[in-house]
Every structure is written in structure tokens, then in C-alpha cells.
Specification:
Layout (H helix, E strand, L loop, with lengths): L11 H5 L6 E3 L8 H4 L9 E3 L7 E2 L12 E3 L7 E2 L14
Parallel strand pairs: 1-2, 2-4, 3-5
Length: 96
Amino acid sequence: SLRFNRLKRVDAVVWKHLSGLINLRISGNQFTSAEDIGLAGLINLRILFLQFNRLKSFNCSDFSDARFLQNLHLSANFIQEINPENMNCQIPLSTL
């Protein structure tokens, strides 16, 4: 859990050593895009909470490395745009 810090960016190298994570909560930080979080390599991730950040957009392709992602929580962000390509997203967006 990385909750309620002031994180603005995490390098993907950090997550490389935690590739076995299946549940991750990164809530209450200052990330504005999925790229800022650097999630590449977290292929085993099943549940991801990205609530209470400053995410401005959602692109399904940003999470393509997490092939087993079953639940993605994006509530309480500043998302203003969801691209049409996300309508064919394989990730359940029940809490968007």
C-alpha cells in the first residue's frame, strides 16, 4: 500500500522487484497519469486501487502489462476523458 503520500512519479524499476504483487493500493497521491505510476512489469496484478489520485484520463492500453487484472478501482480522480478504445477493454471497470 502506498496511501496518502505526495508521490508524483514512481519509476518502473521500483516495481520490477515486486513483480509477484497481486493486490496493490496506490490511493491518495498526486499521480496524473498511469505512466507516472510506472506499472510496467506487474504482470501478476489482479486488484489495483488507484483512488483519490489526480488521474486525468483512462486508457486501457496503460494497463496492458497486467494481463491478469480483474478489478480496477479508479474512483475519486479527475478523469475527464475515456477513449472509445476502452469500450473493448478486458479489464472489469465496475468501479470507474
